[in-house]
Amino acid sequence: MRDLRVAVIGAGPAGIYAADILTKEHEGASVDIIERLPAPFGLVRYGVAPDHPRIKEIIKALNRVMGRERIRFLGNVEYGTDLKLDDLRRHYDAVIFATGAMADRALDIPGVELPGSHGAADFVSWYAGHPDVPRDWPLDAREVAIVGAGNVALDVARMLAKPADEQLTTEVADNVYQGLKANQATDVHVFARRGPAQIKFTPMELRELSHSPSVDVIVHPEGFDIDEASQKAISRNKGTRLVVDTLLKYLEAEPTGAEHRIHIHLCQSPVSVLGNDRVEGIRTERTELQGDGTVRGTGEFIDTPVQAIYRAVGYLSSHLPGLPFDHHAGVMGNDAGRVLDLDGAQIPGVYVTGWIKRGPVGLIGHTKSDAAETIANLLADVANLRRPEIEDPDAILEHLAGRQITVIDADGWGRLDAYEREIGEQQGRERIKVIPREDMVRASTHRD
C-alpha cells in the first residue's frame, strides 16, 4: 500500500483516535492533526467540568498518541478561515473531519429566548475556560431550572450548586472561580421527561452530585415510575440498575439541611418558559410511561418559579464551509465515514468521524470504534485516492506562514501545558488553565 498523507481536522478524541488507528494500520501513513485552538483535546479539555480529574485522565493517553513520530499537531489553525478544502486537497491524500459538536441543540418552546434562558453548552464552555467565550457569566438567580436528562445536565447542576471554594483544588481559572463565588443559586431543579430507568445519566456522574457536604440531592417521588418495560431495562443493563439504585437512595434519604439543593423531577416535560421581560418560571407537563420507554402527556401542568433556565437537551455540530451538511440531523452526510454530496455520491478523499459523523451520542469509548470504521473505509479506498499536488510535508507550514498564521506545534502545546502546571503549582494545584487565546499563543511560543 502506498504512502499516505492525511489531514485530520479537529484534535478532540475523535480526531486523535483516527490518527492513532491510521498510523497503526498503515506503516506508510503520516497524519497532521489540525486544530483551530492553540490546545488539543476538544471537549475533554473544554467540555468536562473542572472537578472531574478522573475523566481527564484520558488526556494522558491522547498525549501519548500525539507524541508519535508520524503524527504532527498543528494548532491555532482554523478550517474555513486559515485553510480551505482545496488547500487541504493540494497537500494531502485524504482529509478526515472530526470537528465534533459545540453548539446547543434548540429547545422549541415558548419563552425560550427570554433573558435568563441559557444554552448549557455555552455555560460549560465558560466554566471550562474556553478562549472564545465571554469571561463573565450572569449567576444572580436563586432558583434555577435545567432541562435535560444527561450528564451535561448533572454537570451544570453540580457546578451551580457546589460552593466555589470547593473548586480551588481544580484547574478552574480565576475569572470562573470569581464568577462562581458570586453565584446566588440555592435551589437547582433538573427536569427529566421520562422515568428513572430511561434517563441518560451515568452512575458515576449521578453519585457525584452528593459528594459536596453543602449540597442535598432531593429526588421528588412524583414521576418515580417503574413499569414492566423499565423493570426489564433494569434487569438487562447494569448501568441502568445502578442509576435507579442511586436515585432510590436519594429518594429515601432525609435532607441534611444543606444550604444548596439539587432537585430531580422525573416524568416532567417542559412546555413553556414563563415571564415577561425575563425568565420568571418554567411550566412542565406531567408525563406517564407508555410501556415501551416513551411517554405521553397527561394534561397536568406544573409551574415552578425560577429566574434562570439552562437547556441541556444535546449538542449540535456546525456546518463547515465547502461541505454538505444535514441541518435536521446535525451531521455531515456520510456512509460509514465516507462523506456524501447532496446527491448521495461519495466525495473522493473526504471522510468524517466522531459526533459530526453520527451525532452527539455515546461516550468516549464509542468514538474509538467509530474512528476504526472510518479508517477501514479510507484504507479500502487508497487505490482510488488522488495523490496530492504538493508532496513536501513542510509545504503546508510554509503556506500557513505565508498567511501569517502562528502555528502551535506539539512542542508549543508542551510549553503551554508546562506553563499551566507551573502557575497551578504556585497555588498548590496541579494546573490552572490559561484562557485568553493571545496568552495561550504567547505561552506556546515563548522559549527560555
Side by side, the strands of the main sheet go 3-2-1-4-18-17-16
Low-confidence stretches: none
Structural class comes to alpha/beta
Roughly how many Å apart are the termini? 43 Å
How many domain modules?
Answer: 2
**What is the helical fraction, as a range of percent?**
25-40%
How would you characterize the largest beta sheet?
Answer: 7 strands, mixed
CATH architecture annotation name of the largest domain: 3-Layer(bba) Sandwich
Proportion in β-strands: 15-25%
Task: Please give the number of β-strands.
Answer: 18
CATH fold node name of the largest domain: FAD/NAD(P)-binding domain
The CATH superfamily of the largest domain bears the name FAD/NAD(P)-binding domain
Whole-number radius of gyration?
Answer: 23 Å
- Mean pLDDT across all residues, rounded? 94
| Count of alpha/pi helices | 15
Global outline: globular
Identify the CATH class of the largest domain: Alpha Beta
